[in-house]
Amino acid sequence: MTSAGPCDPELKMAAGQQWVLVEMVQAFYEAPAYHLILEGILILWIIRLLFSKTYKLQERSDLTEKEKEELIEEWQPEPLVPPVSKDHPSQNYDVVTGPPSHKIIVNGKECINFGSFNFLGLLDNERVKQKALASLRKYGVGTCGPRGFYGTFDVHLELEERLAKFMRTEEAIIYSYGFATIASAIPAYSKRGDIVFVDEASCFSIQKGLQASRSFIKYFKHNDMEDLERLLKEQELEDQKNPRKARVTRRFIVVEGLYMNTADICPLPELVKLKYKYKVRIFLEESMSFGVLGEHGRGVTEHFGVNIDDIDLISANMENAVASIGGFCCGRSFVIDHQRLSGQGYCFSASLPPMLASAAIEALNIMEEDPEIFTVLREKCKHVHKTLQGIPGLKVVGEAFAPALHLQLENSTGSRESDVRTLRSIIDYCLDRQIALTQARYLDKEERFLPPPSIRVVATVEQTEEEIEKAASCIREAALTILK
Amino acid sequence: MRFGSKTSMTESSAIREANGGPGHGAANGLKVGRNGWVKNQKHHHKKPSSYAEEKVHHSACNGGLYSRPFYESFEETPMLVAVLTYMGYGILTIFGYLRDFMRQWKIEKCHIAREREEQKDFVPLYQDFENFYTRNLYMRIRDNWNRPICSVPGDKMDLVERVSYDYNWTFGYTGRVVKDVINMGSYNYLGFAENTGSCAEAAAEVTVKYGVGVSSTRQEMGNLDRHEEMEKLVARFLGVESAMAFGMGFATNSMNIPALTGKGCLILSDELNHASLVLGARLSGSTIRVFKHNNMQSLEKLLRDAIVHGQPRTHRPWKKILILVEGIYSMEGSIIRLPEVIALKKKYKAYLYLDEAHSIGALGPSGRGVVEYFGLDPTDVDIMMGTFTKSFGAAGGYIGGKKELIDYLRSHSHSAVYATSMSPPVVEQIITSMKCIMGEDGTTIGRERVQQLAENTVYFRRRLREIGFIIYGNNDSPVVPLMLYLPAKIGAFGREMLKRNIGVVVVGFPATPIIESRARFCVSASHTKEMLDQALNAISEVGDLLQVKYSRHRILPALDRPFDETTYEECED
């Protein structure tokens, strides 16, 4: 491109550089005709733009200071929070006095606990308590820092190693809060533009993780592999149209081992098949199945005999079966190690109090020493599942081996609110007769697919057959009295 | 190394003009601000060439709002150091590429964990580019982080000795313990990280009685009487109507902000807010606008514009506006200009969310945080948030405020509905330590600790300045960042300090702007004067060794200082 246009005023300004002018004139003569015409047109265009007022300037809406002040004066924000009615079902919590273990005092009444996820009864295990106590005497309670800044204790390293060994994976990483585990893990990998295929029944922490990842989310029908494959195929077609984009779009399937909201199990072998067929990674949330399913309590992978290396990431919390606090992710080092710098809940949060880590280690010891405990739990689960069958007006939702079942109303009373109230009266009836139950709570407006209201019935190894029978007959009575 | 050039002359004269208040002269050239704070605009590293010219002087005439002097300094980066820092990163990058090249051709051994063979044809799990920094910069100095400790994280701690025979790719443990390292890294502001004493005793008792877990959520079967007692105590401590506690500080922010705002709401967030606040704001689905760190002009402008123009495109008025700020900023050591924020919030009818993660317990004559520090009314802050991890030596977070707010959170907080409730021993630690701070345990230990922390802070900060370091932040903030700038000095500083048996935190990009790598000390009430002096001597020694005494405005020990009750009497040096 000739840099010196014939009429460039700037260059004329550069006085004393005669040769430039000469060159310009020369260039003018040498330039091809189309070039000159083009430049001529451009110059005319500029002149036209400068002098014509063919368009009207948009009416300027500059406000005066006074008008601004008025606007500011007039603006009334909504209240910070909407008022909550006094009788909102979640306004009045049940109060537990004393330890929330097998025998529990709810609202002043001593009951048998069918409400906490203390599946293995480790919450009031003497060995766990002693280990926690010893740890407290050594480290104090808090860690006063995130893992990076002197918040890594030797017990954290030990726990991570033990979890990895227990699950037979290369590496494990612990979080200080169960909810934050999967919610931090998903956005560590899945970013804007990536695609996540997720089961409709996924629990809330998965939903939050997905939201934080800002990825493209595709829900498939609960446990419906055909629906999932349909979505995967759709995506495959999409990818063929745009192979360049497909090469950088990560794909994940996020499922739960035992679903928190439906108490049924994911069809893991089929998922693994789909994984290799469509090259999608699988993230598995095992909070309800870790320490429950499988011969050694390793969860769904052991239950189905699936090679654990085929699952890219397994996450679970240590708040249910392990009866401590916190959560962990495990898998291959290639996957897990990435979270140490990109898992937000890991990097930016204070680490797990060492005494809770010690308690978790001792819980793992107990689980490893006596895998019989899982068989016992399975028996109790089956027993609970069996005795709850056939209660008029209530249906049991969940697998026979699931430790936390849902009891739903067979026929809704019309509105969610009245359903909730009906179930609450069943719970109150049972509470009066020393059976502690609780409703499964959800944020109605926040859930992607809101499950119907239900009563949780949790089986633990500590419950005796008589207690289970008693609970079942109590619920039956309540249903007969209340659901007329 | 140091720069005493013209720039600093004009700089300090500009400060004097901006700094209208009498009696707070910048005689020593310190960039202090009472009425308006002065700071070079630090976040323009996209245009390194214009870096030195870009200085913005803000001066607000709000001196009357402050009940006490407000001294905050952010000495500008010396030009030469800035240039050298960029060169440092340049060299590291070149070597990084070189080594990546050698790794690719198998000349250098590659230690990176590999994708398994079966999944080689999957879309890569993470971008290679992201890992360039990790592989070639972070890995070289990785030994400065995640140092495992095997004792109480108190004033002194024991470290598990680590060795690496493959340049930090893997660590081995020698089995030895590095004993009695002075801990300048933990957020143990009031020294409640203890394994003896009333807190530990109480926690132990509860462990025996309750066990450590709860295995249910607050709304289901996990609402213990101890939780309710703690929440009442927290409310009383903060001077608010009601409070609620959550199991994790990070989640307190990220799971409750979405319950408060939503679509059609505007969140105004300080640019240096913690990741949890940013995440919470994002999850809420509100529009987020960011104002310059602690800059009230910037905040006011955003507020005005927001109300005048309404929502983008539709121009509907915003439903509500929430201002997110922190009490003490943990990387800058600055204290929020709360009196001005409250004035603005009232003027524009916005709501204020104050995150007191670092300031609760650490500021104010009786440890009630930044609100008390400025002598303000806690009811002027709509949402008082804080954590128990730091000053209380426990874990978790809280939100305090009006009864309606907390009632709403009780039924709508993600945490209350879906997350397991707090561990009983942790709750007990909070109750006991908080009662101690409030003096309800019948002792004066708590109050003394709060006072001791304030004294230690002022002493430690002043001495570092006198030695000639560039120290960021407010004179009363127990978070003390010491500027290192050059990437190579991050690792060197951390290692040299550990050699002298002092544990410090060093931070670089991405936790800080790229050229502002720093070391950070957290002063604790449990540090004795001897410990602080030992640390200061070591820091000075390492400072000479590494040439990091960059300050051109070194304060002279002889000058009388604008401090009153907390100034040390002893003669120094």
TrEMBL record, chain A:
Record EC number: 2.3.1.50
Residues annotated as domain Aminotransferase class I/classII large: 110-473
Family matches, as Pfam families: Aminotran_1_2
SUPFAM superfamilies listed in its UniProt record: PLP-dependent transferases
GO CC annotations, alphabetized: endoplasmic reticulum; membrane
Transmembrane segments: 33-51, 172-190
Top EC class, one word: transferase
Keywords from the UniProt entry: Acyltransferase, Lipid metabolism, Membrane, Pyridoxal phosphate, Sphingolipid metabolism, Transferase, Transmembrane, Transmembrane helix
InterPro entries, alphabetized: Aminotransferase_I/II_large, AON_synthase_class-II, PyrdxlP-dep_Trfase, PyrdxlP-dep_Trfase_major, PyrdxlP-dep_Trfase_small
The protein's annotated pathway: Sphingolipid metabolism; Lipid metabolism; sphingolipid metabolism
Amino-acid biosynthesis is among the record's keywords: no
Gene Ontology BP term (one): sphingosine biosynthetic process
GO molecular function, one term: serine C-palmitoyltransferase activity
Catalytic activity annotation: dodecanoyl-CoA + L-serine + H(+) = 3-oxotetradecasphinganine + CO2 + CoA; tetradecanoyl-CoA + L-serine + H(+) = 3-oxohexadecasphinganine + CO2 + CoA; L-serine + hexadecanoyl-CoA + H(+) = 3-oxosphinganine + CO2 + CoA; octadecanoyl-CoA + L-serine + H(+) = 3-oxoeicosasphinganine + CO2 + CoA
Cofactor: pyridoxal 5'-phosphate
Signal peptide location: none
Task of the protein: Component of the serine palmitoyltransferase multisubunit enzyme (SPT) that catalyzes the initial and rate-limiting step in sphingolipid biosynthesis by condensing L-serine and activated acyl-CoA (most commonly palmitoyl-CoA) to form long-chain bases. The SPT complex is also composed of SPTLC2 or SPTLC3 and SPTSSA or SPTSSB. Within this complex, the heterodimer with SPTLC2 or SPTLC3 forms the catalytic core. The composition of the serine palmitoyltransferase (SPT) complex determines the substrate preference.
Family listed: Belongs to the class-II pyridoxal-phosphate-dependent aminotransferase family.
Entry protein name: Serine palmitoyltransferase 1
Protein's organism: Astyanax mexicanus
